[in-house]
Write a structure and sequence with these properties.
The protein is α+β, with helices and mostly antiparallel strands. Helix content is about 35%, strand content about 35%. It is built from four helices and five strands. The chain is elongated and about 60 Å long. It starts with a strand and ends in a 7-residue tail after the last helix. The mean pLDDT is about 75.
Length: about 120
């Protein structure tokens, strides 16, 4: 079960933005989705709470708590910290770009019967 709160606004560049806060009732988490309409394209920015900071803190506590394994030790080497940060960022806070496909829109309108019953 989820609860959603939405807000439409303009960003600093003048683009229309639809902000959706999606709260998961059965979990202690929420997601913020910002949909920017840029011409015929859209950009979706996701952010999850609790997010990357909590995951990185948990990973750090596992590493400093005396628990050791080959996998964790190799992941926490200096060279891979940036990679871990990037992977967490792309997983918890992805950025998705889309563009309008006119052919798909026309095909959808031809193939999907739309009817309303009151």
């Amino acid at each position: 079960m989820v609860a959603v709160k939405g807000q439409a606004a303009f960003d600093e560049d003048g683009y229309t933005v639809l902000k959706l806060k999606i709260s998961f009732i059965e979990e202690a988490s929420s997601r913020l989705l910002k949909i920017r309409f840029i011409g015929e394209n859209i950009e979706m920015l996701w952010n999850e709470c609790p997010g990357k900071d909590l995951l990185m803190t948990g990973l750090d506590s596992v590493m400093t708590g005396g628990t050791s394994s080959f996998l964790l030790d190799s992941l926490m080497e200096k060279d891979t910290i940036g990679l871990m940060d990037l992977l967490m960022d792309q997983t918890v806070c992805p950025k998705v770009l889309g563009e309008e496909d006119h052919e798909a829109g026309e095909r959808f309108l031809r193939e999907v019967p739309i009817s309303f019953t009151l």
